[in-house]
Amino acid sequence: MGKACRARAVHGTALCVRHAKDPGIRSRALEGSRRGGKKRGESLRRSTASPLEVEDLDLETVAGLRCYLARALLQLGKLPFDVKVANAMAQMVNVARAGIEAADLETRLAALEAEVGTHVA
Predict the structure, then answer these.
(1) What pLDDT band is residue 45 in, cutting at 50, 70 and 90?
(2) Distance between CA atoms of residues 113 and 67, nearest Å
(3) What is the DSSP string of 2-43?
(4) Which residues lie closer than 8 Å to 28 by C-beta, 6 or more apart?
(5) Alpha carbons 109 and 66: distance in angstroms, whole number
(6) What's the pLDDT tens digit per position in 61-81?
(7) pLDDT digits (tens, 9 = 90+) for 88-112
(8) What is the pLDDT, as a whole number, of residue 108?
(9) Using CA atoms, how far apart are residues 46 and 39, in angstroms rounded to an integer?
């Protein structure tokens, strides 16, 4: 069995607004939640970041993608911090990490190929 609800009871009743049996109390609580959700959504829509400048980037290279991701993370960091922003940042960090690893492997492979090419010739 679950734990007892610890929310404050509605004046004149033994239950909180979420567990109240009175449909009027419940509808007022739901309306308040809706208003709060709409207000929060509006504030998130108003707090958008400016567009990223990407004309100078070659997005078909690992270096270009890494730079793009870095710029995008900087823009995300300017937004009000909430769960959606944090999730987007975490995903972008994971993509950036994979790009950095790929670039490192490409550099190392190119160095090995150059070394083998000089010794074979």
Answers:
(1) low
(2) 26
(3) -PPP-SPPPTTSSS-TTT-S-HHHHHHHHHHHHHHHHHHHHH
(4) 17
(5) 19
(6) 778 888 888 888 888 888 877
(7) 878 888 888 888 888 889 889 999 9
(8) 93
(9) 11
What tokens appear for 15 in the block? 């239950």
Q: Rounded CA gap, 14 and 38, in Å?
A: 30
Q: Which amino acid is at 103?
A: A
Q: Where along the chain do its domains lie?
A: 1-46, 49-120
How far out from the chain centre does Cα 2 lie?
32
Q: Please state, in angstroms and rounded to a whole number, the distance separating the CA atoms of residues 74 and 52.
A: 10
DSSP states of 61-105: SHHHHHHHHHHHHHHHHTSPP-HHHHHHHHHHHHHHHHHHHHHHH
